[in-house]
């Protein structure tokens, strides 16, 4: 399996990085995990075939994780001439938030009939769902008001990847990521604890219970990025590829 960080930045462009968007591929797997507002730009920059993407898995509805959906869909409709089906899967409330983000970005666009089959699929916390050949298990995490917010565990082709999404520490992260092949974890600060976000010091205390085979830190603030050479952990970069 292969995961490319299309974008690994926070909501504020720290380090000049694109918003969160990961491209997961294998022999039959081809999906995005999150699709932040700048994702179409980043996908084009990396030369990724957007029509080959079978599903977009959403952790939550903040713009730096979900705001790229209108651009992705209108590009598919009018420029790449997509014909293959697409699944967008995310937390409960997805249809409402989909209409909202489409109408906010391009009024009238939510009523456009796509030239391809589009399915909006609501995932349920703690329940494993089959999405485009992947087994996807969401867990509720804590990221303030306006949820639900998910961490995601994705299993496909005998491999597993988990992503914290945006969250302060919560025990459901152990359920999401235990013994996973690749764990992508938010590390917004090194040792400064703030509500709704995860810091590395807190994460480190719980890693012995999670036991990921590989850990990559993402969604880092400017302060965290300035320290990344001294962290002792692998860190995400826009365009970086991890094979597992």
Could you characterize what this model shows?
- The chain is an alpha/beta fold and 244 residues long.
- 23% of the residues lie in helices and 27% in strands.
- The chain is built from 7 helices and 14 strands.
- The chain has a 7-stranded mixed sheet with strand order 6-5-4-3-2-1-14. The protein has a 7-stranded mixed sheet with strand order 7-8-9-10-11-12-13.
- The mean pLDDT is 97.
Instruction: Calculate the mean pLDDT score and round it.
Output: 97
Number of strands: 14
> Which fold name corresponds to the CATH topology?
Metallo-beta-lactamase, Chain A
User: What is the succession of H and E elements?
Assistant: EEEHEHHEHEEEEEHEHEHEE
Structural class: alpha/beta
Please give the count of helices.
7
The main sheet comes to:
7 strands, mixed
**Shape category:** globular
Strand content is 25-35%
Under the CATH scheme, the architecture is 4-Layer Sandwich
If strands are numbered along the chain, what order do they take across the biggest sheet?
Answer: 6-5-4-3-2-1-14
Say which CATH homologous superfamily is assigned: Ribonuclease Z/Hydroxyacylglutathione hydrolase-like
Q: Helical amount among residues, as a percent range?
A: 10-25%
Using only CA atoms, what is the Rg?
17 Å
Distance N to C terminus: 5 Å
Uncertain segments of ≥5 residues (pLDDT<50)? none
């Amino acid at each position: 399996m292969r995961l490319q960080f299309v974008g690994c930045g926070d909501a504020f462009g720290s380090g000049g990085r694109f918003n969160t968007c990961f491209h997961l591929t294998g022999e039959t797997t081809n999906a995005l995990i999150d699709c932040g507002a700048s994702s179409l730009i980043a996908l084009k920059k990396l030369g990724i075939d957007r029509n080959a993407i079978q599903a977009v898995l959403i952790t939550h509805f903040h713009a730096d994780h979900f705001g790229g959906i209108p651009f992705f869909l209108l590009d598919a409709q009018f420029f790449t001439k997509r014909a293959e089906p697409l699944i967008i899967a995310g937390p409960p409330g997805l249809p409402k938030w989909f209409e909202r983000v489409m109408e906010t970005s391009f009024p009238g666009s939510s009523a456009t009939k796509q030239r391809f089959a589009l399915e909006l699929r609501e995932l349920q916390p703690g329940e494993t769902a089959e999405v485009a050949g992947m087994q996807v298990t969401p867990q509720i995490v804590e990221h303030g008001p306006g949820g639900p917010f998910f961490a995601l565990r994705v299993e496909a082709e005998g491999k597993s990847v988990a992503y914290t999404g945006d969250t302060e520490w919560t025990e459901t992260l152990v359920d999401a990521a235990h013994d996973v092949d690749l764990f992508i974890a938010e590390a917004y600060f090194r040792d400064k604890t703030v509500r709704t976000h995860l810091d590395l010091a807190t994460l480190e205390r719980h890693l012995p219970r999670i036991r990921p085979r590989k850990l990559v830190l993402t969604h880092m603030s400017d302060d965290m990025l300035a320290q990344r050479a001294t962290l002792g952990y692998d860190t995400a970069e826009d365009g970086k590829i991890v094979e597992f």
